[in-house]
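Anyone able to model this chain together with zinc ion?
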Amino acid sequence: MKTKTERIELPGETNFHISEPIQSRIVDPLAQLLDSAGSGDEDTGLVDRNGFSESCFLFGEIKSVETRLKSPRRELINLYPIDSNKYLVKIAFKDGSNLGAIVSFIASAKNEAMVFSSPLKYRTRSWKKKTISSVRYYYQDSLNEKIAESFVRKNEEIAEKFGLAAKKLNYFKCSNYDEVQWVLGIDYDAKSAGTVQSSESFDNTIITGLNTENFEHDVFHMYIESEFPSGEDRNFIAEEGYANSIADAYYAKINGDVITRNELTGCLREYLAENSEADLLQLFQKDPRVFHPLSEEVSQEVFDLLSVRSTITSLFCDEVERLNGFEGIIKLLRCGEGEDAYFKALDDLIGVNKTNFDKTAKELVARKN
Ligand SMILES: [Zn+2]
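re: yes, here you go
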């Protein structure tokens, strides 16, 4: 079993101008909360009810940071008041002497006790706000209402597929993933350093790092997450394919436009024209980088993430929906984990198997979308 310190170390000398007894009022209860985080038996009494869902998300993230560290140490590195009875508490999570993460919390005095939360509300307090139907946008500079309205319609369309009312969403538009983490309270995380295009979502909250009003791809995953929470039957190959199909490929170009599945299909068509020996079953299974026509328009990070496997799967998803409706899609999405389950479901639904995969996929790629 892993041994770890449960203490939060205090700096030898501080310049903290705090009248609270730091050890007993702030540091000890926070350590207690951090120990219980992610255990399934969280000390939720110590989590501020105001901002509960982002705080639970943050404590879950810290749990995974600490699980990663071989010799985890917690160190209080900053503490200052931000309001009457409210403090910003900054903790470094170290692996021996190496830095794993730095996380900021808000500690709020409520009656006798101190409760803790993510600084999301505090760090976005001066952001602009605009509600468009089911979506409340929070943003710093500008909002592209045309893209926002199209996202709102997509949210309704996806909900309708599941026979549900559209989710009411809080949407935070950030410029990049570093900013996503910062608003949540993760000032630094060694594991995600260098990641630019990524986002977080939980409950009804979206925090995108793609600097866009469009979260169509991931909002589909959010519906799946809430409809099939157990996850046991979910097939992630199919899910990724259908997210590309009903929405887009998730990642954005340098000019900010989110890449569509049809653009990727066009690139794949070009690739096949130049590589006549290419086998689409092999491309599906090995998932190499093939979208070279886009390389001038996307960052290296995005180029490395664009998946031909998901593009091919998404074309098959279109066929499944055309022939079997959304019911067929649900069967494919819930066929169980892994490639074998996916191939079996695809064969059952549209008669595509490893023998005719290449031929059928090539026909679908050749069709103009
Ligand atoms: Zn996805």
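The first strand starts at residue 8 and ends at 9.
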